[in-house]
């Protein structure tokens, strides 16, 4: 109680200082929640990729997002390579023809596969309602968790995808990774949709039945996927096989940089808040020089003086931290609730605890010098101070 | 029996570059247990400095200070802090209470610094406040108290740890005449009933008059220890009669 009274002796100053810490913690929570979400997406992505080898057309881009058609025939060739258990042709494309790919997280995708390799897939998708799409299905779709709302999808009802009507046969459980923002159709339907979306000049020359944008290669037990990818590149002409390592490294590194930047910005704002605590405490010590003299005269040890001022700066930091945590969490929850697509933020206990802990640590650190300065005062000089 | 003894105390203060004030130039004092002594002298005579050294708030450049037979001038700061909290009580001119704390909290603080638990400190503080007659003002802040009441809180704070010595730096300096008398009577009462030694630095001849003896200082030296001029009539029996009747 006494500590709180001392902190609020100068109300405006206390409130301003607390606001400084509050804004810092707020930034740390909001931006940290974004970083946590990205980390989770990437971890999910890595799990999704697992030990698979991804094959795209020879001059295609990295990962499974190549849009250059690949021939389904390559599946047979790849399956002949040593170490390959099964290969599955698939088509992935953006859900909307108009939508830019520059969104946070995964853009909504359409995926269609031939249904092969299911036994080797380590990442199992469960369904809230309905069933998965089968290779023989025509005009059927399953919808990812994040898209269910957006498309207003219910099993048995129709949704429109790229201008075509599809019947929803299944709703997927949340996986916290790619499938959440994807719809799945049969390879046949995906080939038709993809073909329809091609430029007129190209379309005539391509047979939709053999088209694929990627081939997922499942590896036999005991084989090194990187080695198998190398062998595919050597033995199969016109394709580019990528092992999981490249994907992991590339994504891992870029995430690290991204999260570092995000945390860096938030930490800087918290540090600025910390400096304002140093300022406030230094002013408090100067203003209360005489009080420090009295305290020392009546028997306060240096220890007691340090403890007093450290507690005051800790109270400032903790108050700012709690309020910032409150506002930050509220903001994150509201932003997630207001967003119908993939939630942008993920509030974790470690983020909340870490932010509050860091604010408290910073508060105590900021109070250290002023407190030490107060404790070192000569009592006689302090008592004479007007 | 001697309670406070100083031997050849010297103290210089540096005001600026090469600019010294020789505050004490060899001060010898002897103050008996249970005595109430005034230190008088013009400004700059060194009386406050002498009191700070006796009160373990500062250390002399040379010379010795003894409290209750123990040498204190050569002790570590931590030891001095402990002596201040347990052996010495301070009463200042400007009352020097902590403005954010209530009367009882101000008093309890001194007990806490002396090592009492929060509850014990609070109990002791309540008793001390009752002793100075401020029971109904216990939970008031200094700003809600008159000057005389504030100084009584300061007295309660000085006696809460039952120290052997109470030092007062112009304890009546900010008070009107009637209140000054009230405060002096209260200190005298404590002096007689508890045997606490009082050393009061003052400009006020009436305060000095009420004491057992007056030590006079000038230019950093004791020019009169008051022993010769001690009035015969002011012995303890008379005081007891006064208080009792």
Question: What is the gist of this entry?
Answer:
The complex is a heterodimer of chains A (386) and B (245). Chain A is an alpha+beta fold and 386 residues long.
Any key phrases for this structure?
heterodimer; A: 386 residues; alpha+beta; 2 domains; 10-stranded mixed beta sheet; two-stranded antiparallel sheet; 53% helix; elongated; B: 245 residues; alpha/beta
Characterization of this structure:
The complex is a heterodimer of chains A (386) and B (245). Chain A has helices at residues 2-7, 11-49, 74-79, 145-151, 187-196, 200-203, 225-235, 244-287, 289-297, 302-338, 349-375, 379-384, and strands spanning 53-57, 70-71, 84-94, 109-113, 127-130, 140-143, 158-161, 164-172, 182-186, 211-212, 214-219, 239-242. Chain A has 386 residues and is an alpha+beta fold. Chain A has two domains: 2-43 and 251-384, no CATH class; 53-242, no CATH class. In chain A, strands 1, 3, 4, 5, 6, 7, 8, 9, 11 and 12 form a ten-stranded mixed sheet that branches. A two-stranded antiparallel sheet of chain A has the order 2-10. In chain A, a hairpin with a 2-residue loop joins strand 7 and strand 8. In chain A, helix 2 (11-49) packs across helix 10 (302-338) and helix 2 (11-49) runs antiparallel to helix 11. The longest helix of chain A is centred in the C-terminal third of the chain and has 44 residues, at 244-287. The radius of gyration of chain A is 30 Å and the shape is elongated. The relative contact order of chain A is 0.19. By secondary structure, chain B is of the alpha/beta class. Chain B has one domain: P-loop containing nucleotide triphosphate hydrolases (Rossmann fold, 3-Layer(aba) Sandwich), CATH 3.40.50. Chain B is built from eight helices and ten strands. Chain B has helices at residues 47-54, 77-87, 103-113, 118-131, 147-159, 177-194, 205-210, 236-244, and strands spanning 2-16, 19-32, 36-40, 62-67, 70-71, 88-91, 165-169, 197-201, 213-218, 221-224. A six-stranded mixed sheet of chain B has the order 6-7-8-3-9-10, with helices on both faces. A four-stranded antiparallel sheet of chain B has the order 2-1-4-5, with helices on one face. In chain B, strand 1 and strand 2 (19-32) form a beta hairpin. Chain B is globular. The two termini of chain B are 28 Å apart.
């Amino acid at each position: 109680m006494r500590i709180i009274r001392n902190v609020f002796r100068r109300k405006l100053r206390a409130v301003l200082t607390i606001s400084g810490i509050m804004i810092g913690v707020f930034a740390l929570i909001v931006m940290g929640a974004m970083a946590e979400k990205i980390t989770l997406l990437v971890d999910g992505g890595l799990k999704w990729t697992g030990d698979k080898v991804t094959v795209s057309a020879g001059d295609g881009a990295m990962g499974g997002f190549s849009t250059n058609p690949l021939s389904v025939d390559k599946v047979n060739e790849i399956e002949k390579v040593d170490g390959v258990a099964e290969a599955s042709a698939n088509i992935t494309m953006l859900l909307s023809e108009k939508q830019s790919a520059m969104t946070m997280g995964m853009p909504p995708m359409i995926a269609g596969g031939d249904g092969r390799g299911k036994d080797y897939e380590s990442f199992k998708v469960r369904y809230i309602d309905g069933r998965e799409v089968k290779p023989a299905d025509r005009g059927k779709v399953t919808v990812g968790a994040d898209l269910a709302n957006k498309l207003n999808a219910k099993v048995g009802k129709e949704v429109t995808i790229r201008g075509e009507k599809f019947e929803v046969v299944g709703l997927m459980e949340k996986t916290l990774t790619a499938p959440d923002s994807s719809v799945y159709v049969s390879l046949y339907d995906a080939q038709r949709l993809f073909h329809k979306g091609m430029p007129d000049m190209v379309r005539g020359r391509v047979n939709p039945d053999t088209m694929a944008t990627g081939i997922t290669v499942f590896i036999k037990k005991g084989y090194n996927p990187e080695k198998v990818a190398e062998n595919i590149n050597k033995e199969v002409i016109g394709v580019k096989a990528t092992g999981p390592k490249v994907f992991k490294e590339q994504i891992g590194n870029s995430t690290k940089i991204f999260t570092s930047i995000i945390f860096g910005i938030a930490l800087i704002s918290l540090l600025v808040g910390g400096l304002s605590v140093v300022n406030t405490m230094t002013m408090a010590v100067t203003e209360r020089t005489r009080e420090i003299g009295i305290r020392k005269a009546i028997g306060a040890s240096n220890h007691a003086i340090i403890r007093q001022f450290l507690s005051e700066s800790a109270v400032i930091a903790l108050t700012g931290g709690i309020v910032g945590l409150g506002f930050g969490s509220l903001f994150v929850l509201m932003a997630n609730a207001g967003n119908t697509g993939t939630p942008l933020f993920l509030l974790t206990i470690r983020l909340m605890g870490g932010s509050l802990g860091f604010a408290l640590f910073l508060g105590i650190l900021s109070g250290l010098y002023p407190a030490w300065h107060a404790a070192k005062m000569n009592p006689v000089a302090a008592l004479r101070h007007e | 029996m001697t309670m406070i003894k100083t031997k050849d105390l010297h103290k210089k203060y540096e005001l600026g570059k090469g600019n010294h004030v020789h505050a004490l130039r060899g001060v010898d004092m002897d103050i008996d247990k249970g005595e109430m002594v005034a230190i008088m002298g013009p400004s700059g005579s060194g009386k406050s400095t002498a009191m700070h050294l006796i009160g373990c708030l500062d250390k002399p450049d040379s010379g010795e200070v003894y409290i209750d037979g123990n040498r204190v001038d050569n002790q570590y700061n931590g030891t001095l802090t402990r002596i201040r909290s347990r052996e010495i009580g301070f009463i200042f001119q400007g009352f020097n209470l902590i403005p954010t704390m209530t009367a009882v909290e101000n008093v309890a603080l001194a007990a806490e610094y002396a090592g009492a638990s929060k509850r014990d400190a609070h109990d002791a503080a309540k008793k001390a406040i009752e002793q100075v007659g401020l029971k109904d003002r216990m939970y008031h802040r200094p700003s809600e108290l008159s000057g005389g009441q504030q100084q009584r809180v300061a007295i309660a704070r000085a006696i809460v740890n039952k120290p052997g010595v109470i030092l007062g730096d112009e304890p009546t300096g900010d008070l009107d005449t009637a209140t000054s008398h009230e405060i002096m009577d209260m200190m005298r009462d404590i002096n007689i009933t508890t045997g606490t030694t009082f050393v009061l630095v003052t400009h006020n001849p009436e305060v000095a008059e009420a004491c057992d003896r007056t030590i006079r200082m000038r230019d950093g030296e004791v020019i009169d220890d008051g022993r010769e001029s001690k009035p015969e009539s002011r012995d303890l029996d008379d005081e007891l009669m006064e208080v009792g009747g």
